C-alpha cells in the first residue's frame, strides 16, 4: 500500500480486499442485507505506527462485526489470522497497558451509534468516541478484575481509500482468555434469554441457575455455595459500570466465562459500553424487573442475601466516592479525546450524509454533564430499590500529616481531609494504617469508637467525622 502526502497522528490499519468480495450482490459482505449473513472474505492487512513504520503485513480473513450496528453505513470489522495463510497469529504489541504481543485476531470498531440519549427514545447517532474507552479507563483505575478489551484509536484505509477513525480492540472470545489469563479450557457464553454458547457448554451454567432458582439465596448457606461458583467481587464490579452508565442493553450485551475446572468460577466480560440512557434513568429498578435469565437474573437472586447486599452497596459506594466523581470523569474524557481530536473532522467528512452525527464535541459535553448529576440519581435509586435508611456523609482525617493513611471499605485514602458518602445501617469498615515509624493510638470522634485500628461503622447518623491519631514509635 502506498500513502502519498498523507499525514496522521494515529497508527494506520490498511485492508486490501477484492471489491467483488465487498460489494457483490450475491455474497459481498458489505452489500445490502448481506451484512447480516457473516460472510468471511480473504484480505491483506498492514499496520503502520505513527512514524509510518510497518509493524506487519499479512494475509488474513475479514468479516463484518457487531450486532445492530451493522445497519449503519460505517461498519465494524473482525480481522482474523489463519494458519492457512502461513503464520496463525498477529505478533505485535498493540496496547501499551498490556504486555500481550500475540493475537489470533482483533476488532476494528466503527463506533457510530448511541452518541447521546437526551431522552429515552433518541435515535442512534455518531459521536466523539469516548464512552467505551472511559469505562475501560475507570475499570483500570479502580484495579478491578472485570475483563475488558484493551483499545487503541487508529485510522483505517480500505483499498487505499480513507475509511475514517476506528478503534482497534482485542476480540473477546477464547483467545482473549488465553492471552489475558493463560487459560485454554473454558465455558463462555452470552447469557441472554437462552444462553448463546461461545465455547464449552452450558452444563455448569444451568447448575448455577438451578442453585439460585430452586433455593432461596437469602439463606447464607446457599449464598456460600453461590460464592464457590461465581466470582462475587468480579460480578459486582461489572454491575457497577452498567448501573452507573444506565446501560440500555445491559441484559443483551453481556458475556460470562469460567475455567472448566472443579473450582472454576463465573466471571464477567464487560463490553459495548456505549448505550447510555439519561442520567435520571432508574437502572436499578430496570434491572430488578427484568425477566430473563443470565447475569442480571443472578444479580436479582443474589440481592436477596444480606451479605451480598452489604458487599455490593459498599463497593458501589467506593466507586461513587472515587473514580465516578465528576472531576475524575472529566479528566479521563479530556485525556481520551486528545489523541483523536485532530482526526475527527476528517472522520465526519468521510461519512457525511451516510452516518448521522451529533454536533462536534456535544457528546463530550453530554457525558461531562451526565457525570455531574448521575451519582445523585443513582444513590436515590439504590436507597429506594433496597429500602435503605438513607445516606451517611463521612469525613476522614489524620491528626498529623504524613503519619498514616486510612482504608475505608475497599479503598485506601492518603489525601486528607477526605469526604465520602455511604448508606445508613449498611455496615462498612474503616482501618487506620500507620506509616513506617508510626503506630496507631486512637480515633478522635464524638461517637466514641474503640481504640482499635479497624472498626465497623453501622449508623443512622447523617454525618460522621473520624480522625486517626498516630504517634512515632519509641
Structural notes for this entry:
This protein has 474 residues and is an alpha+beta fold. Helices cover 27% and strands 26% of the residues. The protein has 12 helices and 21 strands. The protein has helices spanning 19-23, 131-141, 174-181, 203-214, 220-227, 232-244, 283-288, 295-302, 306-320, 326-337, 344-351, 362-385, and strands at 12-16, 40-48, 54-65, 76-80, 90-91, 102-103, 105-109, 151-158, 161-170, 186-190, 196-199, 255-259, 267-269, 391-398, 404-408, 411-413, 418-423, 428-434, 438-444, 454-457, 463-472. The strands form 5 sheets. The protein has a 7-stranded mixed barrel. The protein has a 4-stranded antiparallel β-sheet with strand order 11-10-12-13. Helix 2 packs across helix 10 (326-337), helix 6 (232-244) crosses helix 9 (306-320) and helix 10 runs antiparallel to helix 12 (362-385). The chain is globular, with a radius of gyration of 25 Å.
Briefly say what this structure is.
The protein has helices spanning 19-23, 131-141, 174-181, 203-214, 220-227, 232-244, 283-288, 295-302, 306-320, 326-337, 344-351, 362-385, and strands at residues 12-16, 40-48, 54-65, 76-80, 90-91, 102-103, 105-109, 151-158, 161-170, 186-190, 196-199, 255-259, 267-269, 391-398, 404-408, 411-413, 418-423, 428-434, 438-444, 454-457, 463-472.
Throw out a few tags for this protein.
474 residues; alpha+beta; seven-stranded mixed β-barrel; four-stranded antiparallel sheet; 27% helix; globular
